[in-house]
């Protein structure tokens, strides 16, 4: 029994016998391939495409409720799609990268993530943070020989050194958030110093509120 494309508000259920074929050479019995569904799946390819389209605009639970199927069916379709698209990333075609680190729960466990900016795909995940976490990625990148044009990172000295060492011809772009934060920190320090040097309440009143003028 298969989930088919919906008619109205409910999906169509298709029930049909599937032939099983015996191979006298290898002695194994296999299920005959169907043109509209994959083996061991309870949904058609058309239904799968419809679920993925809905998933762009709805949560897993909403899609499942709308199509009257279980949460697990929708999740299985999404998981298969991600594996097909991103299981084998070809580094050869990379042009623009983003490198950052994320914290995993408690205990100060970090992962270093490399993202393909064009496709949004995660192309590498390394244990830890800093230059050592990226070493396996640089080895893979050298074998693929892509033409990396730009790399975006935060202002970490470790990332700066890594990019200069392994991608000297690529443009190094600093994360917008960190650039603005650094500017605001320096501007606040400068403004506090002026307030301390200002003579009398009148001069201090002039500086009041100027923190936001440069933003």
Q: Compute the gyration radius: what is it?
A: 27 Å
Based on secondary structure, the structural category is alpha/beta
| First-residue to last-residue Cα separation | 61 Å
Number of helices: 7
Order of helices and strands: EEEEHHHEEEHEHEHH
Tell me the β content: 15-25%
| Largest pleated sheet | 5 strands, mixed
Overall tally of domains: 3
Could you please describe the fold and organization of this structure?
The protein is of the alpha/beta class and 215 residues long. The chain folds into three domains: 2-86, no CATH class; 91-174, Nucleotidyltransferase, domain 5; 177-212. Helices cover 41% and strands 21% of the residues. It has seven helices and nine strands, in the order ββββαααβββαβαβαα. It has helices spanning 45-55, 60-67, 71-86, 131-144, 157-166, 176-197, 200-207, and strands spanning 2-7, 10-14, 20-22, 29-31, 96-103, 110-116, 122-127, 150-153, 171-174. A five-stranded mixed sheet has the order 7-6-5-8-9. α1 (45-55) crosses α3 (71-86) and α2 crosses α3 (71-86). The chain is elongated, with a radius of gyration of 27 Å. 14% of the residues are buried.
């Amino acid at each position: 029994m298969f989930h088919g494309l919906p008619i109205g508000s409910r999906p169509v259920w298709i029930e049909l016998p599937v032939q099983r074929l015996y191979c006298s050479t290898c002695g194994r019995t296999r299920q005959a391939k169907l043109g509209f569904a994959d083996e061991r799946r309870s949904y058609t390819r058309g239904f799968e495409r419809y679920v993925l389209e809905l998933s762009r605009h709805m949560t897993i639970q909403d899609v499942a409720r709308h199509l009257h199927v279980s949460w697990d069916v929708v999740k299985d379709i999404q998981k298969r799609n991600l594996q097909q698209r991103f299981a084998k990333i070809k580094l050869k075609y990379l042009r623009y990268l983003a490198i950052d680190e994320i914290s995993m729960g408690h205990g100060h466990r970090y992962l270093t993530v490399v993202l393909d900016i064009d496709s949004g795909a995660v192309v590498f995940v390394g244990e830890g943070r800093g230059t050592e976490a990226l070493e396996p990625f640089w080895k893979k990148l050298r074998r693929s020989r892509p033409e990396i044009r730009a790399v975006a990172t935060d202002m970490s000295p470790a990332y700066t050194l890594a990019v200069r060492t392994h991608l000297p011809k690529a443009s190094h772009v600093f994360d917008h958030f960190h650039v603005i934060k650094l500017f605001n920190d320096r501007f606040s320090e400068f403004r506090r110093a002026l307030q301390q040097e200002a003579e009398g309440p009148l001069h201090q009143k002039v500086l009041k509120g100027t923190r936001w003028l440069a933003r």
